[in-house]
Structures are given as C-alpha cells and as structure tokens.
Amino acid sequence: MVDPGFPQSHTTGTTTTTTTRVATNIRFDPTYLNPRNIPGVLKCAVLEFGYCALWTFFYLTAAAACASWGGSDPAAAAAAFFGFVAMILYGADAFFKFKGWRAGEIAQGERQIQMAGPDMASPGAY
Fold first, then answer.
1. Where does the MARVEL domain lie (predicted)?
2. CB-CB neighbours of 52 under 10 Å
3. In the prediction, which pLDDT does 89 show?
4. What mean pLDDT is predicted for residues 44-67?
C-alpha cells in the first residue's frame, strides 16, 4: 500500500554561486633578477645595508642597557658582552655592504656574463 502523504517521485535542485577574487599585496619584481638592470640590483644592496645598519643600532642600545646592569647581575653582563659582539659583527657586515654598494657589486652571488658567440647554438623551444 502506498503512503498517501508521500509522493511517488520528487525533484531536488541545488544552485551554487562562487566568486573568487585574488588580491596579492606582494608582487614579483623581475628587475631584481635581470643582471643587465643595475638599479634593480642596487636596490637590494641598499636594503641589505639598511637592515644591517639598523640592527647594529638595535644591538648597541640593547647591549648598553644590559651593560648598565652588568655590575650587579652577571647574566646582564653576559648579555651585554654578546650584544656588543653581535653589534660589531652587524656593523662590519654593514660596512662591507656599503663598500660593495659604492663599488657597484651585486648584493648576493656572483655576476655571470654569458656572451653569445657565432658557435653558440640557440636554445630550443620548450
């Protein structure tokens, strides 16, 4: 016997709407990878120099604050010592990065120049 309250067949429908929007705040800048573009390379060297110089200042202030308590607290004296060592290392790195930037060196790696000669074959298609 068939239940009078339930129909023999029924239809079910589903509607789905999806909207995807991608907004990236970090964008790829290919000028950093082009060895012929010296200003793009120098931007990276200047950023690294600024980073090292800023951390030199941070370690100077933190180590000086620890050194002021170093007479009464041996842990503060040890922190001051290692803070001054880190300050010297970051300062030396900033100095060498500044000299390299002024000399036109690239920030990381080695400059590789490849000249195409008459005997050099062209790369094939992918």
1. 1-102
2. 19
3. 97
4. 93
